[in-house]
Specification:
Elements (H helix, E strand, L loop, with lengths): L1 E2 L2 E2 L14 H7 L4 E4 H4 L18 E8 L5 E9 L7 H39 L6 E4 L4 E4 L1 H6 L4 H5 L4 H5 L2 H15 L17
Antiparallel strand pairs: 1-2, 3-4, 4-5, 6-7
Length: about 200
């Protein structure tokens, strides 16, 4: 919050109020609200104050933030102390903004959740003597954990320098069975891809 050229921390005086308020609950239930406050407020208990000295905002737009499955997870709002500020063109513009923000927030949440899950998996694996490799079928990219490389006497950098590390270290006599079981799984004939193969260590 900038005041007289000096930046100060902004503290919302209504931060401790119970949320969500009545208007927010209506939006979370599926409504898109816009227009003058006196048209939007249905009951006295819905009155809420924004700004200093309990000054009422007069014009509002409230839009839901939604996941891709249309489930609401929040509300975005814009307000003015002047009446009749928002019209249909503002509604359409703000609707597009809410859709953009919804996608960005949901994507950030998903990425954060994936990163957290990956950190938990790495933490769990670090306490075991298990090597893991993962194959992205769409991108045709294989990634390995450092423990996997270490078990075979390699560094992770050495493993990643191979075009097909798993094939390079697999006993040739085992490759036919490995490929067959992989094909069966990709075709959906098996629920999991499970097999045994002999792999040569670096030494």
């Amino acid at each position: 919050d900038e005041h007289d050229g000096e930046c100060k921390e902004y503290v919302d005086r209504y931060f401790s109020q119970v949320a969500p308020g009545a208007l927010t609950r209506r939006v979370l239930a599926g409504s898109h609200l816009w227009g003058n406050r006196d048209k939007l407020i249905q009951n006295d208990y819905e009155v809420s104050y924004y700004g200093e000295s309990n000054r009422l905002s007069q014009s509002l737009i409230l839009m839901p933030l939604r996941y891709k499955d249309n489930t609401p997870f929040g509300v975005i709002t814009i307000q003015s102390y002047e009446p009749d500020r928002y019209h249909h063109k503002h509604f359409e513009l703000f609707k597009s903004l809410s859709e953009f923000c919804s996608e960005a927030i949901a994507r950030t949440y998903t990425e954060t959740k994936l990163r957290t899950n990956e950190e938990r998996l790495n933490f769990a694996l670090s306490g075991t003597n298990v090597g893991v490799w993962d194959w992205d079928l769409l991108l045709d990219e294989v990634t390995f954990t450092e423990k996997f490389a270490e078990l075979l006497g390699y560094t992770i950098q050495e493993v990643e320098s191979y075009d097909n590390f798993l094939q390079a270290v697999t006993q040739p006599a085992d490759m036919a069975q490995v490929v067959q079981k992989l094909d069966d799984h990709i075709k959906g004939e098996t629920s999991i891809y499970e097999h045994r193969r002999r792999m040569r260590r670096k030494d």
